[in-house]
Amino acid sequence: MSDQHVYLEEVFSSIQGEGIFVGVRQVFVRFYGCNLRCSYCDTSETRAGNPVICRVWRGCEPGRFSETLENPLGVDIVADLIRDLWSPSTRHVSLTGGEPLLQSRFIRRLGERVEMPFYLETNSTLPGAAVDVAGVIDVAACDIKLEESGVEDDHGVLFKRSLETIEIFNDSDCLVFAKIMIPPEDHSGDHHAGCHIYSRDQP
Questions:
Q1: Residue 124 contacts residue 142 (beta carbons within 8 Å)
Q2: What is the architecture of the domain spanning 5-199?
């Protein structure tokens, strides 16, 4: 898509369940599309054709309800949705997916319109896109994919790209942390290597 429009799966306010901000309220913006096919993906619906609608969840249970908006959405509409869902207890705008960095130009444009802190959830395999958005990201939650993740791409290349992406965000003015999904059958040792390399530049 362009820097002005984007396909989204859903927008909602909820509690972060992963990483170092577990328990913190965020406004989640779920982007459509991903460049990987991980075997354990829990949002596979973001890979099956461009979604016709974006669902917007408002309120809290039991009074929660949804509305639908036609995709693609303009950047000003997304900015307004974020402001509408923001509350005094909200900490970040979580850019999740799918893989948000596939829409790096849109994210950069959105960052020019939204003053709230951006929390990026990324598979870390698109360092070029990371350069594009580093200036508007406040927190970067970066995955390091293991060979057992089931992606068909060359794992060695993906691993290097992940470390490069982490370094890009680490060099920018944002908080960076890495996430590694370790399956029970992992024997590659990549998680040890990733943690070692990552820890050289992180507190």
A1: yes
A2: Alpha-Beta Barrel (3.20)
Q: Where are the domains of the chain?
A: 5-199
Q: pTM for this one?
A: 0.86
Residue 9 token pair: 């799966």
- The tens digit of pLDDT for each residue in 124-179 reads 999 999 999 999 999 999 998 777 655 656 778 888 999 999 999 999 989 999 98
Q: What distance, in Å, lies between the first and last C-alpha atoms of the chain?
A: 37
DSSP string, 95-161: EESS-GGGGHHHHHHHHTT--SPEEEEE-S--HHHHHHHGGG-SEEEEE---GGG---S-HHHHHHH
Alpha-carbon 43 to chain mean position: 12
